[in-house]
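In the current project phase, we have settled on a layout for protein records. One protein thus recorded is set out beneath this paragraph:
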Amino acid sequence: MHDFVHSKPSNVLYNAFCPCSKDKDVFKNYQSIMAKRFKTPAKRFSRFLLVFLLCCVASGPLNSWPTIEPLLGELHVLGSTYNHSSTGLNQVQTLGFSFGSLLSIPLGVAYDVLGPGTTAAGGAVSAAIGTLSMAFAISNTKYNWILYFAYPLATIGGSMNSMAILGWQWLMPERQSLINSLYGASLAISDTLAIVGVMLVNRNILTLQTFFILIGIVAVLAAIICYLVTPSKMENSMHYMIVLHENMKEEYEKTNFNSIDVATPKINRRNIQQAQLENNNNNNNINQTLLEQGNNQYDDDIESDEVIENKEDVLKIKNKVNQMEKDSNFKMACKQIWKATKGSVKVLIKFPLPLFLAQCFVCMIYWSAFYPMSSMYNYYVLSLGVEDAVSLVDAFSLIYGITGSVCTLFAGWLCDQVGLVRFLRYTNMLLVITAILQMIPRYEIQLLCITMWTMSFNLFMIIYLRLTMHYAPMEIFGAFQGILGTFMVFPQLIGSGLVRKYFTNAFPNSPKQFYYPYVILNSITILFGIILNIYWWKYPPPAVGTVIFGENGEIYKSKEEMDADLSSKPLIDRSNDATSNNIHYDVDEIRGSDNEDYDVDNTMEVVTETETFF
């Protein structure tokens, strides 16, 4: 199988049909430090495809709750019947969806600390335990209470397992929105298994309990393969370092140096700190390193420099990864958790208004999508009858799984092409169409509405993940995403029960108990979407990967902003500190100016306690 996948015919097919084959391979000059399974684009894609398919199965049919509700009703689970979903079942569904978001922060921190591979494997194990527990819970009505624990565990595990897909964000850097969309698509495709399960159960081929057991077994297999194939934390960090460095080199090559005095290259603070880290035991070596770096920076022999740079870059990245491996212990993990939490707060402080508007929009689009789904079966029973209601919830699984995943892939590609700001405009248009269709009680219109709802919900997943990539440094991607996800669920979790109770009492046994909350939620969502679009039109979000931790621990919108801020601040004189490695430079020389003298005068110490990748 391995030989076939990597044979020449398969490579020909990859180059012919895979859009990623046209992307620039930024890893081709780093083969010596790349894992064997990621050395070529074809290998990276084949591993990705394998993990993606396993994630689709491991997530199981559990997110498509409306489709399996009638089957649970036939078993009288938690007092339900075939034509009515009990309060207990609604509570189980709410817990399952809400707890996944409430635990977003610890799950996101786990992604940052443990890496994609370990997180995905742990998620698959959790999904397996949850799904097998569900099989036991429905075996007898006296065990139904286990669903309150089993279903949330299964859904949380499925979402964690799909995080394996995010491990390819930096292996396929030109397709990051597509990768994000595939993360959502894996959950959508998995829901098509619900309709497969319903068909097999209705034809008496197997029972619902057996179906859950089979899904649990596949989840165990997914845990093993995801752990072996998905990038580890160290590998993911290394891929990020390589991509960022290659992007910086590309920007450097595009810069016009004609106006720069090549005889007096400026030595900046970052150069000095870099040299200090590499040669802090020898002051003379540091000075020589800095001067050589400055003189070589504008060398006319570009090709020769590129060869040298690649060798030096590989060595630096390899050393950095080796150091990270040595630091991978419990103490460092605790430090990373603290750094991720503190860094996420700093990001919120750095970008308060856009993140507030984006968070409100994310909260409302989630609430306006979840509320109709949680009441879908009862809404269709009151407005169209039991027969059409059962048909529509069965169709929901198929539409959400197939149409939703296809549209999500297209949307991910579209977001890569047009950017987040224009993509949000298209999402708002789709939300308006969905809100209008939702109010028309006709079977054909509701089929179309389910399709539009599926598209808008999966577009929200892309915006949610892309938002994190624009505003948060890579090191805290998971933690910051977790913060957004945690706050996202609170309005739905607190408000849905109150809204449902009020309108049910106001309009008992009437479709109006659903019409009014639908209109209110959709209107608020669209309003926030328009406001956010206007703000981003005037103040576009930072480019992906440019927001970084500064050398003073602060958050900066770009490297240029960090350099400008640090160059305006005086350096700390700690020459009397016996614990430090004393390295002295003249402060005017370090700050740099057009008329400065570059002869080194050891009169001031340069101290850094931060990390640099290159």
